[in-house]
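Friendly challenge for the regulars: who can give me the C-alpha cells for this chain first? No prize, just bragging rights.
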Amino acid sequence: MRPAEASNIYDLGYQHYTGLRLGRGHIVRSLYIESLRGAFGLGRGLPQKIFAFSLVGIAFVPALIMLAISALTAEQIDLWRYQDYYGLIQVVLALFAAGLGTEVVGRDQRNRLLPLYFSRSITRQDYAAAKFAALLTAMLIISIIPQLFLFMGNAFSTTDTVGYVRDEGDVIPAILGAGVLISFMMATLGIVIAARTPRRAYATGATIAVFLVSTAVGNAILHAAPDTFARFAILFSVFDVMDGFTLYFFQARTRGTSVGTADLPGIIYPLVALAFSFAALALYFRRYERMSL
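First reply, four minutes later:
Bragging rights claimed.
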C-alpha cells in the first residue's frame, strides 16, 4: 500500500455532453434506412446481395422482353397486358417477402441485438414500425417500378409518346393502387411470420407455405363446388385475392381465371386483402409488445 500522503487526485475534466442530441426520430430514420439497405443486401454478404438483386432482375424480365420485341419489330406487341404483369411476378414477390422478411427482422433476433436497441430512446413500437416500413418500401420498389418502366418504355417506343400517355395514362392509378396493396399484403404476411422466429429457414419456409398452400387449398375447394358457398374459399387464397383486386383496379375481364369462376363482387377482394393485412400487422406489433428479451 502506498502511503496516503503519496496519493494524488487528478482533475480529468469530465463534463456533461452539451452537443446536439438527434433524438428518437433520428434513431427511427436511421434504423429504417439501414434496414432498407439490408433488405437489398447492401452492407451484407455476397449471398444476400445475389438473392435480392436476382429477384429484382427477374421482376424486370417480362418488361424487358416486351420492350425488346417492340424495338426489334418497330411496333408495340402486347404479350402481356398491364393487369397481367403482377400475376407474372407473384412468385418472385412472394420469394422476396419471404427471404427479406427474415433478413429485416430475424437478423437482430439471431444476433441478440434487441436489448441494445431498446436500451436507447427508441420504443418497441418505433422499432417494429421502422422495420416494417423498410420491408414495405422494398416491396414497393420491386413491384411498381417494373410496371412503370414498362409503361415509359412503351410510351417512348411509339412515334407519338404524348398520344400514348394520353390514351393509356388511365392505367397508372391502377398500377399504383394494385402495386401498393400487393406490397402491403405481402410485406405484412412476410414480416409477421419472420418476427415469430429467428431461424431463417423456418421463417422463409413458413411464409412460402402460406402463399402456396392457401392458393392450392382455396382453388381445390372452389373447383370442387364452384356454384355453392364453397366459392368463397377463394378468399383464403393469397394469390387469387391479389389477382382479384388487381383485375378490379384495372376493370379487366375475369373470364378464364379462378376469380371468374368464383364470380364474387370485385370490391370484396381489396377489402379482404386489407382485412388480412391489418390483422397480420396487429399481430406483428403485438409480438414486439410481448417479446421477452
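The radius of gyration is 25 Å. The mean pLDDT is 85. Your move, everyone else.
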